[in-house]
Fold this sequence. Notes:
Blueprint: H1 3-11, E1 16-17, H2 18-28, H3 37-49, E2 53-55, E3 63-66, H4 68-78, H5 91-99, H6 107-130, H7 135-141, H8 150-189, H9 197-211
Antiparallel strand pairs: 1-3, 2-3
Amino acid sequence: xxxxxxxxxxxxxxxxxxxxxxxxFEARTGGTWPINISQIYxxxxxxxxxxxxxxxxxxxxxxxSITAAGRTAVQNWWYSPTLRSTPERSEVSIKIALAVTxxxxxxxxxITAQRIETMRALRDYTILKANLPSDSDAETTGTPPxxxxxxxxxxxxxxxxxxxxxxxxxxxxxxxxxxxxxRAPQLQRQVPNKPTAGATAKxxxxxxxxxxxxx
Length: 215
């Protein structure tokens, strides 16, 4: 999600200023995408330039309101799929790809190190999700759950969904590492030896000698 659409979404519920929008954005996304206040205001300036938001008169600090064009933009964003034509760069997949195409790399060691980290992260996110208070906890322990406002409950629900996304992604990565572990050694054996620069120069020199071009 772009910061642009995040801010338009917040402004679609009413005017606000940068600091409050930053708080709202981070609360509704579980703090998983922290943004600084300069990013907020630089984005707002671009939105104002493009006619998607406008400033309110005599407001201090400066407050912003969404325009009709801004509402159209955010509506189009809601109901358009997020394209996957340009996948995000994954350091894990790039490292594995380089490892299976490089001689002398212990691919099993690379995979084992990554699996340990993947499982650590998966455990941490699972614990975070398990520690979210729920109504079933109150039924089990007899302890009333902490009172939450409707807004706090909505933010908690959003955070739980974000955690689910992280957990599913890490589970998929663990399965992918299992898959790679069975294939990588064979793939690595198929990598041709790359001639060294010295060998290439020597070979080229020999070819010239054989044709007499260098003489």
